[in-house]
Every structure is written in structure tokens, then in C-alpha cells.
Write a structure and sequence with these properties.
Blueprint: H1 6-17, H2 24-42, H3 48-61
Helix pairs in contact: 2-3
């Protein structure tokens, strides 16, 4: 795959659009990974378990 050209990017975008949607579990894993990675940069005391606990609480609250 060549992403250095506009056509390469266009082909990539079209391929991505054909992918099936994420499952709820995959969405949660992505969300937790994103939040953990970004907060860990700012606060070394953050653990993945803390992020998972907060995610669980937020999901239960909605």
C-alpha cells in the first residue's frame, strides 16, 4: 500500500469504509487504550485498571 500519493490515500479510505463496525467490546478496548495512553503521559500514577474502573462507572451511569 502506497500512502505517499493522493490515490494511495483514497484507496486506503475506501478500504477502511468497507470494514465491519466495531463491536461494543472493541469500542471499549479502544476507548480505554486511548484514555490510558493520554492520561499516562500526564500522570505516571494512572493505571489501566483505574481507567477501566472509571469507564465501568461511566457506562453504568448512562
Amino acid at each position: 500500500m502506497n500512502l505517499t500519493s493522493k490515490q494511495g490515500w483514497n484507496n486506503f479510505v475506501e478500504d477502511v469504509r468497507k470494514l465491519p463496525p466495531l463491536t461494543k467490546e472493541q469500542e471499549r478496548d479502544h476507548r480505554i487504550s486511548f484514555v490510558y495512553g493520554n492520561t499516562k503521559i500526564e500522570n505516571d500514577n494512572i493505571t489501566r485498571e483505574m481507567v477501566e474502573e472509571i469507564d465501568d462507572k461511566m457506562q453504568n451511569a448512562s
